[in-house]
Design brief:
Blueprint (H helix, E strand, L loop, with lengths): L1 E5 L10 E6 L6 H9 L3 H7 L2 H4 L1 E7 L8 E7 L7 H15 L6 E5 L10 H15 L22 E5 L5 H26 L7 H14 L3 E6 L1 H7 L2 H7 L7 E8 L8 E5 L1 E5 L19 H15 L5 E11 L11 E3 L5 E3 L7 H12 L6 E6 L3 H7 L4 E5 L2 H14 L3 E3 L4 H4 L9 E2 L7 H10 L7 E5 L5 E2 L5 E2 L4 H12 L1
Parallel strand pairs: 1-6, 2-4, 2-5, 5-6, 9-11, 9-14, 10-11, 13-17, 14-18, 15-16
Antiparallel strand pairs: 3-4, 7-8, 8-11, 12-13, 15-18, 19-20
Bound molecules: ligand BES, manganese (II) ion and zinc ion.
Amino acid sequence: MEYRALALDVTSHAVDCLVAVVPSGPMPAPLAALDRATEGLVEAARAAGELARFLGWSHNLRPPGIAAKRLFLVSTGDKEALTRDQWRKLAAAIAERVTGRGIESAAVILEGVAVEDSDRTDCAARLAEAVVTGSYRFAECKSKASEDEDNRPSLARLDLVCAPEEVASLQAALDRGQAIGEGINFTRRLGDLPPNICTPAYLAGAAQSLAESSPRLTARVLEEPEMRELGMGALLAVTAGTATPPRLIVLEYRGAAESDPPIALVGKGVTFDSGGICLKPSANLDEMKYDMCGAAGVLGTLLAADRLRLPLNLVGIVPAVENMPSGNATRPGDIVTAMDGTTIEILNTDAEGRLILCDALTYAGRYRPSAVIDVATLTGACVVALGHHRSGLFSNDEALAVELFEAGERSGDKVWRLPLGEEYDEQLKSPFADLANVGGKGAGSVTAACFLGRFAKDYRWAHLDIAGTAWKSGEKKGATGRPVGLLAEFLLNRSR
Ligand code: BES
Ligand code: MN
Ligand code: ZN
């Protein structure tokens, strides 16, 4: 796919599909030219009233007088400026149009469109991101092409019409949106892959291929004997019941001087969560393949960071395991010793995410990171609290929490902060060990975060619970690629 910002004459530009966003105010120059060439078609559509009233209402026209094969008029409704959420919706609607099969080339006119707290580069970046993510299909496990995924060509070229003086800045914005969209799609694919294919070794392979694709990325993969040497007893307790070997993946991105402390991103990589001996019920159990979306999100964010050439250092740390029951599986009541020496009484083998993450958080400390953000499909309780709209945010650092919250609002990949605190932390007391792995009734996502917080005392830390946001259930089920948009926005802001 090629994304280009071009100063051109819209009437003579030959593409399969021309999309013109029609703002409510005075007609901008390219639209006026389009109107003249089509003998008043744009004005007529506006005058008919439909365009003004509904956001995203679209005409599909095949007018003579212009070189484009089809013309879509998309309205911004009657408001002067769109909210960022409205622009994202409109961008998604445009993306849906132009990524329909049979359209190979498209051009978009955005002249005169106003979006709150956003300039034209923000809008262009969002549009490119929407088109990249709108192009995503997961068909690699189907043996033959289906009717809607037929052999007709897909979009190869998207042109953004602009003024000559805007070409450079809008091209950079399109590239930015494309990089983020690619990170999101990379993450979605890993989430959509079945758990018999997307194993810990597969995730490690994915990280290694990323590293091979860029001189700025380096991958290191630890296997079970090394984890044992490091004393990662909590992580090893989760993998005890499965025949599938675990991996600890470390993917480093170098965009700044070696002396610059990195930001560490830690991602939960449970490639299938059966619950272990505390076996989950079978309804929708297939969806527990997405329990590695934290891991996938970290790898996707590093991909985006690399494509964006961010001037900072990152380290992605992914503990990857499968949680299964068997004669070797960890039992409720078992007490294990984590890498930092903390003893943990495992009361519920289904609370496995925190067990692999606690050792990964200890490991992250070795990098003397400027901040650590862990990403995990950690608790069903977070889905109850926030649904599928916002990820849960927890942090021991006010400034970091604000940064992440703001990045969520800007990117649309939103979060909501939930508390940590001693009163919750006390729910994790065990009569037999330093710590229990579950906190009993009430505030399940908070006590899970408190558990992680015990291992994140030496640095600025935030935890994102993406159990509700990483995956869409129902008819169009699949991985969403969240929180790559959020993390990319956060890292871009840190790069300015
Ligand atoms: N992977 C699950 C959390 C989850 C639930 C993610 C639903 C996505 C959708 C996690 O490992 C888990 O099982 N958590 C338990 C914790 C409980 C045993 C304290 C939960 O949420 O029920
Ligand atoms: Mn579980
Ligand atoms: Zn889990």
